[in-house]
Write a structure and sequence with these properties.
The complex is a heterodimer of chains A (276) and B (391). Chain A is an all-alpha fold. Chain A has 11 helices and no strands. Helices cover 27% and strands 30% of the residues of chain B.
Chain lengths: 276, 391
């Protein structure tokens, strides 16, 4: 009896430590975002004065609203394309045997391990010469390239879990290979698809390196870049408060995306297919 | 409704393994045929080739006279029931059963009527809105059946559909399946490794070993006239006893003594040029406690004294096990393979006696064997030397 209580207590301690460790920086930024400029450096965790002015300021900036639009658009398009291509590729890797399969998997891994930094200047030159620089497509393409390995790996792990006989059964029931994939395999892989979508979305949403290097104006600049371009109300003003407010705002879409997708991540979706 | 013809069908896997070799089989319209054999004998591969899930290396597969080798599974109009049932876990029972009809673009009202019909036939009406995960094994099996019968396909292909059920339920489902098949009159190809199931269900059974069909025939015929040692050992439970024997002057001498052959068997052995050294096969059910046999009949048969080692009382009969001395029927790879059917250990003789027998463990009794029922095999190739006339 005492054993379980003791163990529970230890778990509680561990949980609290992890929560504090993860949340303190976020709460600190939240606190900063509600402080007026003169109180920014007061070092108090709970603001003594409370103001919405930082948020109002952020939304008055065209820079930020257009950047938010760009971020949402680019991340959603890149996620959608990456997940679709990744699903098809992962299915092929998990289910089919074809010449060069091992090499394909190896190359995918190579792409994932390649230092992105080293690609920035060539990418910059290429995009400049083909006219992709400072466009949505100019960011969507590299995002797809770098998120695909992640997508393929996650998804093929999920596909491997799906009982192979279900596809055979669908074929026997009169389905074409695509119908079998669409009606039977894909719904069962849904948790994997959503997990992958979340990971890819977060990757695109949080990217700074590509966004900073391959964009120049409000037509394609994303929110992560826009924040760094914030200026204070006057040249002597640090824009700390607005940056904090914008940073906090940036976490909202990701949180929403995760919460919405989470409903679809139901464990044990394939239960009952087999003899059990 | 369809005839299925396999003409010298062969399957060689990419790694060079020959899974199925030159199988020729004509399955009549409405027939219930069983492919039976130990695991790895190629029976499931054969079924998958008929289904179209597995390519055919050489040979021709015809359904209703049309060559279908290249036709994908969805265009063959066959329904399959899998050992694992392979129900779609994200669909309700209703949607599982309706799935083949939806794919065939059948109208909504028709689908509803057909699903309701099928559910009634299989006693699934109350379960239609449940998900497969909440069903018992037997219920899942019925849903899998429902998915197969709902669209009235040309033929049913069944891959060990009952092997995941417990013994009582399996026997019950065997009866239901047999009744259903007769009622629908749909050609059925059924794969199993269980020879009792094969005997119980099939109009005909095809016994397979190592990718080759050993014998095709009605269950009773295969049981009475096994083509070779393998079939003899595989069909029948408990398995046939095999003993080495010498053929001399119209009699077989073995450790059990001398067995005088009937004219019919003697003629058969002459016609097949039986060698001097043979293997004789004695089914447990053709033995009897000598005290229960009429004296005049007893004298014509083979009788011997032996000590009962183990006695199993099954209620309806008694199985007496004896330990044999001397040389065993060496052999034959064929017997070893068939041993997977649950044959006796080497040096064992299993006999089935009537309940009236007073046999008791550790006691010596006299046992009688019916000489008309002896099977004689050539030890070199395993062929049955007593079955020629009925071929």
């Amino acid at each position: 009896m005492t054993g379980t209580r003791e163990r529970k207590a230890w778990w509680a301690v561990a949980d609290v430590v992890i929560l504090v460790y993860a949340l303190v920086p976020v709460l600190w930024i939240a606190s900063l975002s509600f402080k007026p400029p003169r109180a920014i450096a007061d070092g108090r965790f709970v603001p003594s004065e409370f103001t919405w002015s930082n948020y109002q300021q952020v939304f008055q900036l065209d820079l930020f609203t257009s950047a938010l639009r760009n971020s949402i658009g680019i991340a959603l398009i890149a996620t959608a394309l990456s997940v679709v291509i990744g699903t098809l590729a992962a299915y092929a890797i998990a289910r089919l045997s074809f010449p060069g399969k091992k090499q394909l998997v190896g190359v995918t891994l190579l792409v994932a391990m390649f230092p992105q930094m080293s690609l920035i200047s060539p990418l910059f030159d290429i995009e400049r010469s083909v006219g992709l620089f400072d466009t949505w497509a100019g960011l969507v393409l590299p995002y797809i390239a770098f998120s695909l390995p992640l997508a393929v790996y996650t998804l093929s792990a999920f596909f491997r879990e799906i009982p192979w006989e279900l596809e055979k059964a669908a074929r026997m029931d009169g389905a074409t290979p695509f119908q079998a994939f669409h009606n039977v395999i894909l719904p069962l892989a849904a948790p994997g698809v959503f997990t992958t979508a979340i990971l890819v979305f977060i990757f695109c949403w949080n990217d700074f390196l590509f966004a900073a290097s391959l964009t120049a104006t409000t037509t394609s600049e994303t929110a992560t870049v826009a924040i760094t371009n914030f200026a204070g109300a006057s040249q002597f003003d640090e824009p700390t408060g607005s940056i904090a407010a914008a940073a906090l705002l940036l976490t909202i879409p990701t949180t929403l995306f995760v919460l919405l997708s989470q409903r679809r991540i139901v464990a044990g979706l394939t239960a009952g297919a087999m003899k059990g | 409704m369809a005839t299925i013809v396999l003409d010298q069908v062969t399957k060689r896997f990419p790694d060079g393994e020959l899974a199925v070799q030159d199988i020729s089989l004509e399955i009549a319209d409405g027939e219930f045929i069983i492919l039976v054999g130990p695991s790895g004998c190629g029976k499931s591969t054969t079924l998958n080739m008929v289904a179209g899930l597995e390519g055919i290396t050489s040979g021709v597969l015809r359904i209703d006279g049309d060559r279908v080798n290249e036709r994908p599974p969805q265009d063959r109009d066959l329904a399959m029931v899998f050992q694992s049932y392979a129900l779609y876990p994200h669909m309700s029972v209703r949607d599982n059963i309706a799935f083949p009809l939806k794919l065939a673009r059948v109208g909504k009202t028709v689908i509803e009527a057909r699903v309701a019909d099928t559910a009634r036939t299989l006693d699934l009406t109350d379960l239609l809105d449940r998900k497969p995960a909440t069903l018992s094994g037997g219920q899942r099996q019925r849903v899998a059946m429902g998915r197969a019968i709902v669209r009235s396909p040309k033929a049913f292909l069944m891959d060990e559909p009952l092997s995941n059920l417990d013994a009582t339920l399996r026997v019950q489902m065997q009866m239901q399946m047999s009744r259903l098949q007769k009622q629908l009159g749909t050609t059925t190809v059924y794969v199993t490794h269980d020879q009792t199931e094969a005997m119980r269900l099939g109009d005909r059974v095809a016994v397979m070993r190592k990718g080759v069909i050993q014998q095709v025939g009605a269950p009773q015929f295969v049981y009475e006239h096994p083509a070779n040692l393998f079939v003899a050992g595989f069909i029948g439970s408990p398995a046939m006893n095999f003993l080495p024997a010498q053929l001399e002057d119209g009699a077989l001498s073995s450790v059990l003594g001398e067995l005088r052959l009937s004219d019919r068997i003697r003629r058969s052995l002459e016609a097949t040029h039986a060698p001097r050294k043979v293997i004789m096969g004695l089914r447990p059910e053709h033995f009897e406690d000598a005290l229960l046999v009429q004296p005049c009949v007893r004298e014509q048969g083979l009788t011997f004294f032996a000590q009962v080692e183990v006695l199993e009382s099954m209620g309806s009969d008694k199985y007496a096990h004896f330990s044999l001395e001397g040389e065993q029927a060496r052999a034959a790879e064929l017997i070893v393979d068939a041993g997977t059917a649950g044959g006796p250990g080497a040096g064992q003789l299993v006999t089935r006696l009537s309940t009236g027998s007073a046999a008791a463990e550790e006691e010596k009794i006299q046992v009688w064997f019916d000489p008309e029922q002896v099977q004689v095999f050539d030890p070199s190739d395993g062929r049955n030397l007593t079955a020629w006339e009925r071929k």
